[in-house]
Amino acid sequence: MTTSFEAANDAFLAELRSHGAVVSDVIAVADYTAEHAGRGIVANADIAPETELFSLPLSACLSATTSRAAAWIPDHPELAENGWAPVITAVLYELAFRESSQWNAYFDILPASLETPLFWPESDLALLVGTDVPKRIAREESLSLYTNVILPAIEHHVADPADRARFSPDLFLYAGSLLMAYGFSVGSLTGTGHDSDDDDEEEDDMPILVPLADTLNAVHPNSAHLQRSGDTVAMVATAAVAAGTQVFNTYGDHACNELLRRYGYVEWEKRFDAVTVDAEAVVRIARAAIVGAGGWGEGMSETKVDAGIEKRVCTPLILHVFNTDKLKRIDRSTTWPTSTCTTTSTK
User: How far apart are CA 217 and CA 300, in angstroms?
Assistant: First the structure.
């Protein structure tokens, strides 16, 4: 008996193949919900490195050049002047009219809601106080982009009030978050392209949605990698994968704060973890010490103190955090950058 999970997968893969995708029999979509990992890709047979798992043309990917909104997005330069606005508009348009979208079956297998901090209640966000995540969520800035840039462009081309109502703030936030959590950078969509690492894009290199590629869950080290050749992208094995085991991509060298902001999870063992020190807090604490009793700024005017701080606090700080055991193992001859300090943790 076919389950709803299998039926949705079958419909999605059939739609994807109808738009030129080639999917190898060595993989299948599997349900990892019991492991809190949703859908994933499992190896049906032993997979050797360099095996192509699937490929699809860029025309099957959802971007600012393949969406139905591509016909009028270039008419609105204000979109291009605001970062990801063109591709967010493209995804938002297809979601709003998903029943007639080329990507409808793809949308059916995506989560109906996301668990990134952007969607957390205030009581949960309070747990992140002391990290840089709340500041970087930028919910109000995002909604300002929606209200002042994206929605006016859409309404210029969507006249019916009932259709305009489809473009809600919630759907906009979902579209943008979908791009952040599921998007890939594959280079210029109008040039020759290049091989791409997931989430290794330049700031002006907008992501696109690559159906099936985003089904792979992520760990480090990964066992597969998305590559581009001309107008085609392909997922290629980078390591041997045993039959019956999951094939993994990677989200890149992100610390846990960035994993949480983008994808809604953290890894307890994370080789790329880091501590972010708020520059404003550093200056504020330094200023309090400087103007306090015995400080060199005691009795000075605020203007002179600020000038002194600006002169002295002018280089970036690299903070290395080690647990005590690891710190003991570090070669004491290690040469650290000039603007560096180390600290220890008992974790």
Answer: 57
What average pLDDT does the structure give for the chain? 84
What average pLDDT does range 189-208 have in this prediction? 56
In which band, very low, low, confident or very high, does the pLDDT at 140 lie, cut at 50, 70 and 90? very high
- Fill in the amino acid letter for 149: V
Distance in angstroms (rounded) separating the CA atoms of residues 206 and 76: 17
The amino acid present at 268, given as its one-letter code, is W
Pairwise CA distance, residues 230 & 189, whole Å: 10
Rounded CA-CA distance 325/6 in Å is 48
What lies within 8 Å, CB to CB, of 150 at 6+ separation is: 79, 85, 88, 89, 92, 172
Name the residue among 243, 220, 224, 245 with its Cα closest to residue 233: 224
Give the three-class secondary structure for 341.
Answer: strand
Cβ pair 8, 15 in contact under 8 A:
no
Task: Report the C-alpha gap between 120 and 63 in whole angstroms.
Answer: 27
DSSP 21-60: -EE-TTEEEEE-GGGT--EEEEESS-B-TT-EEEEEEGGG
The amino acid at residue 137 is I
pLDDT of residue 324: 54
H/E stretch holding 322 reads strand 318-323
The DSSP result for 262-317, as a single string, is HHS---SS-TT---PPPHHHHHHHHHHHHHSTTSTTTT--HHHHHHHHHHHS-S--
Q: What is the spatial order of strands in the sheet that 39-43 belongs to?
A: 27-31, 39-43, 246-249, 217-218
Cα–Cα distance, 200 to 184 (Å, whole number): 8
Contacts of 173 (CB under 8 A, 6+ apart): 118, 119, 139, 142, 143, 146
Instruction: Tell me which long-range contacts 26-33 makes (C-beta under 8 A, separation of at least 24).
Output: 26/51, 26/53, 27/53, 27/54, 27/247, 29/215, 30/246, 31/5, 32/217, 32/246
Question: How distant is the alpha carbon of residue 281 from its chain centre?
Answer: 27
In total, the chain counts a number of residues equal to 347
Query: What are the beta bridge partners of residue 131?
Result: 129
